[in-house]
Design brief:
Structural class: alpha/beta
Number of strands: 5
Helix content: 25-40%
Number of helices: 6
CATH architecture of the largest domain: 3-Layer(aba) Sandwich
CATH class of the largest domain: Alpha Beta
Radius of gyration: 17 Å
Mean pLDDT: 85
Distance between the termini: 21 Å
Largest sheet: 5 strands, parallel
Order of helices and strands: HHEHEHEEHEH
Length: 210
C-alpha cells in the first residue's frame, strides 16, 4: 500500500468533513496576530511559548505538513515569510484562501515531507512541523531534509506523540481524543484489524523507532 497517497486522500476528505485540524483560523485571529496577539500549537492543546521564536519579522518559515490554514496565516500575519508544504491539496487550499483574502503572501507547495528537494539548501530560518511525522513510514529522511533546508543555527520545532500511547489498549486509547478516529499502528496491528480500519476510511499512522 502507498501510505503517502492513502493519507493524502484521507486528509483531503477530512477538509470536506471539517475535522478540527482542517478548520482555518478566523478573521479575528488574523487581525489580532497583526497586532502581536497570537498563539499557535505544535500539539493539540498547549500553545508554543513565544520566547521559542526569534523575531518573526521577515523570518523565513517552512510550515512542514502544516496545511489547514491554522499556523501559517498566524505566522504570516505576524510578519514572517511563510511557505506551507503539505501532502493534502485540500489542506493547502485553506492556507491559500486566507492568504488571498488577507494579502498574506503565503506560498503553498504540495508534496511528501520526506522529499523537500524543491527547496535549496539553507532556505529557511525555522521549520515548524505540527504533530504529523506519525504519518510517514520512515522518519529519518524527514529529519535529514529538515537539516538540509535549515540555515546554520536554524530552528526545528516539531510536535511528537509520547510512545506510551502505543502501549495502551485500543478501546481506551486517549489518542481518540486528538483525532476523530482511533490510531492504527502498522507495526503492531493484526492484519485483520488494519484491513478493517482501512475499509472504514481511517488515516494510517506508522511508527519508526529505529
Amino acid at each position: 500500500m502507498n501510505i503517502t497517497e492513502y493519507n493524502k486522500n484521507v486528509w483531503d476528505r477530512y477538509v470536506a468533513n471539517k475535522v478540527r485540524w482542517t478548520i482555518p483560523v478566523s478573521k479575528d485571529e488574523i487581525e489580532k496576530a497583526k497586532s502581536g496577539i497570537w498563539n499557535i500549537v505544535l500539539t493539540p492543546t498547549k500553545p508554543v511559548p513565544h520566547n521559542w521564536f526569534p523575531d518573526l519579522n521577515g523570518l523565513k518559515i517552512l510550515g512542514l505538513a502544516s496545511g489547514g490554514g491554522q499556523q501559517g496565516p498566524v505566522l504570516a500575519s505576524s510578519g514572517a515569510d511563510v511557505t506551507i508544504f503539505d501532502n493534502s491539496e485540500n489542506q493547502l487550499s485553506q492556507d491559500r484562501k486566507l492568504s488571498e483574502e488577507f494579502n498574506l503572501n503565503i506560498k503553498t507547495i504540495q508534496g511528501d515531507m520526506k522529499d523537500l528537494s524543491i527547496f535549496a539548501d539553507q532556505s529557511f530560518d525555522l521549520v515548524f512541523n505540527p504533530c504529523s511525522v506519525v504519518f510517514v513510514d520512515n522518519i529519518k529522511p524527514v529529519w535529514e531534509e529538515c537539516y538540509r533546508v535549515l540555515k546554520p543555527n536554524g530552528i526545528l520545532m516539531t510536535g511528537l506523540i509520547n510512545p506510551i500511547i502505543f502501549q495502551l489498549n485500543q478501546d481506551i486509547n486517549p489518542f481518540q481524543l486528538l483525532y476523530p478516529q482511533p490510531y492504527s499502528d502498522l507495526n503492531s496491528l493484526p492484519k485483520e484489524k488494519l484491513d478493517e480500519l482501512i475499509k472504514m476510511g481511517y488515516v494510517i499512522m506508522t511508527r519508526d523507532f529505529d
